Amino acid sequence: MREFRMVSTSGILGYGYPEASLNAALERGVDMIGCDGGSSDPGPYYLGSGKPFVSLRAMKRDLRLMLIAAIRHRVPMVIGTCGGAGGEPHLRIVAQMVRDIARDEGLHFNLALIHAEQDKALIRRRIAEGRTKPLGRMGPLDAATVERATRIVGMCGPEPYMRALDQGAQVVLGGRSSDPAPFAANAMRAQLPPGPAWYAGKMLECGAAPALPKGPDCLHVIVREDGVICEPMGDRACTPMSVANHSLHENASPIRHVEPGGTLDTSDCRFEAVSDKATLVTGMRWEPAEAYTVKIEAAEKLGHRALAICGTRDPVLIGQLDHFLGLVRELVRGKAQDLDIAPEEYRLTIHTYGKDGVMAGREPVREIRGHELGFVLDVVGQSEEVAQAVVALTRTSMLHSDFPGRLCKEGNMAIPFSPSDLSAGEVFRFSMSHVILPDDPYEMFPIEHERV
Length: 452
Known about the structure:
Layout: E1 3-8, H1 19-28, E2 32-36, H2 45-49, H3 56-73, E3 77-80, H4 88-105, E4 110-114, H5 120-128, E5 132-134, H6 143-148, E6 149-154, H7 158-166, E7 171-174, H8 181-189, H9 194-204, E8 219-224, E9 227-232, H10 240-246, E10 256-259, E11 262-265, E12 270-273, E13 279-282, E14 285-288, E15 294-312, H11 315-318, H12 321-338, E16 346-353, E17 373-381, H13 384-400, E18 421-436, E19 447-451
Helix pairs in contact: 1-3, 3-4, 7-8, 8-9, 12-13
InterPro entries: AtuA_N
Pfam family, one: AtuA
Protein name: Acyclic terpene utilization AtuA family protein
């Protein structure tokens, strides 16, 4: 039976993995080394700002081990959603790291970059042609949203990765991509069916997350014509339950996973332990879509954020918390207007940890159960100056606002930091979650080759 062996080093490039686990995978035999480089989970700031959400030092450490192993073992190294968000600045950061490592280690190879950042003119043209559709609760896409976007990326499927490898690249770095796509591309290029190839990608995209106990490790997957075998390389195990559980994550449906070009159907999957560390999964099916679609994501700038953190264990204040916070908001509103800052120039949120701090209005437990509460004072202003002014007013009002029965006449909050007010930089929001009907899977993702 034809087999293709892949190893994923970690859930995201820069999250770290044991070098011994990568070496164990290499001893087991690999046809490809890969890693998903990013996600939209950390929020829109990273896409909008062009900055990565893991440290550059950690990314370079992970890259170095992967790159040396790939070149020495003469197998491809493929990374998707480079730099965290997959925009042009993120891709360039990782590409330069690869060049630097190659220079330091004396490595030689063909490199391909798959660009995923989109030109606004193309998106406007697709809108005019009626070739965009909203996802989830998003409304129809319009030209004004396109113009306000700081950065737009398309989510690349497996086809550009296959083309880059066919054109002679050994190292392929991709911009924003469907998480499983780089792995699925390698398996399908090896003439294995798309069902097992995509399922393998779903397992590999998060490193050893399908294994127990949870922790940093490399995941080795064998793709066969009838299914996939998942095995972690460290002191962990992929059990039928842990693998089945992982296949449910990050998807609205537990059994149907929509990807560029089709849907992975896992409703008939069977899970069988083939050793004390490995599980075989069979029964997955791939259903081609009637039309190929590409998801697009965009970040739009809202302003600047300033924060302050404080806490209280005053039982009198805690006993009338809602009244107290309402008073603070009204005081801030009045003081801001005294500074000629209109209410529409900022947004104030007081996150109360110990009461609704995690789930906010969706929290089913309404009563306060602890003896102390923590507050994050979060201000988003139209400018940095407005944000800093309003957060300072809020912090002062939290400290000194009166309430019935108050005994302490000085500051009534504990503040852990000095300076107490922290600048969190620019603020963005996701403004696009739509799909485009492209001419083909390649037109939105140009490939650039170079000899390193």
